[in-house]
């Protein structure tokens, strides 16, 4: 096998690997936990992404709502995951998921905020146990401090 045929079988591991998702509907999960859905239009060498007709999906339990965001630029360093949405599977209703009408969005956002606050308390307790009993660093204390 020559070098050219070997290189043609090597998967892309850079931002060039997302070129197949251009002009497709995608789901992007950000570092802060937000989920964006939209049509992936463009990206650059830093994997900054441009979404068209973007919505931010907020979910609590099995209920969800979408906040329209329009044209959305996502800084590449904030992307945790990007995946193409299967449009055929999206059309099949999921009985476990309950989409809410836009009028119910304020209540959903309030419930989401309360859920995030409760999760923050639980995470703080876990961090304290890991720090105290397992020798982990306190949040933000890791780094090059010799």
Automatic annotation (TrEMBL):
GO cellular component labels: Lsm1-7-Pat1 complex; P-body; ribonucleoprotein complex
Domain of life, source organism: Eukaryota
Sample GO molecular function, one term: mRNA binding
Sections of the chain in a coiled coil: none
Cited Pfam families: LSM (PF01423)
Main location: cytoplasm
Keywords linked to the UniProt accession: Cytoplasm, mRNA processing, mRNA splicing, Phosphoprotein, Ribonucleoprotein, RNA-binding
Boundaries of every Sm domain copy: 13-88
Subcellular location: Cytoplasm; Cytoplasm, P-body
Any single biological process term in GO: mRNA processing
PANTHER family cross-referenced by the UniProt entry: LSM1, U6 SNRNA-ASSOCIATED SM-LIKE PROTEIN LSM1
Known partners and oligomeric status: Component of the heptameric LSM1-LSM7 complex that forms a seven-membered ring structure with a donut shape. Interacts with SLBP; interaction with SLBP occurs when histone mRNA is being rapidly degraded during the S phase. LSm subunits form a heteromer with a donut shape.
Family note: Belongs to the snRNP Sm proteins family.
Summary of the function given for this chain in its UniProt record: Plays a role in the degradation of histone mRNAs, the only eukaryotic mRNAs that are not polyadenylated. Probably also part of an LSm subunits-containing complex involved in the general process of mRNA degradation.
Protein name per the record: U6 snRNA-associated Sm-like protein LSm1
Species of origin: Ceraceosorus guamensis
Source lineage: Eukaryota, Fungi, Dikarya, Basidiomycota, Ustilaginomycotina
């Amino acid at each position: 096998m020559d070098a050219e045929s070997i290189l043609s079988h090597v998967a892309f591991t850079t931002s060039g690997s997302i070129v197949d998702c251009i002009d497709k509907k995608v789901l992007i999960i950000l570092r802060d936990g937000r989920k964006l859905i939209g049509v992936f239009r463009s990206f650059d060498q830093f994997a900054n992404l441009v979404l068209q007709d973007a919505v931010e999906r907020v979910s609590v339990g099995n209920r969800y709502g979408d906040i329209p965001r329009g044209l959305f630029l996502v800084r590449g360093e904030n992307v945790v995951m990007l995946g193409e949405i299967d449009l055929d599977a999206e059309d099949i209703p999921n009985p476990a998921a309950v989409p809410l009408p836009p009028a119910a969005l304020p209540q959903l956002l309030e419930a989401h905020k309360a859920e995030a606050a409760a999760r923050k308390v639980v995470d703080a307790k876990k961090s304290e146990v890991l720090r105290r009993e397992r020798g982990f660093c306190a949040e933000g204390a890791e780094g090059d401090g010799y």
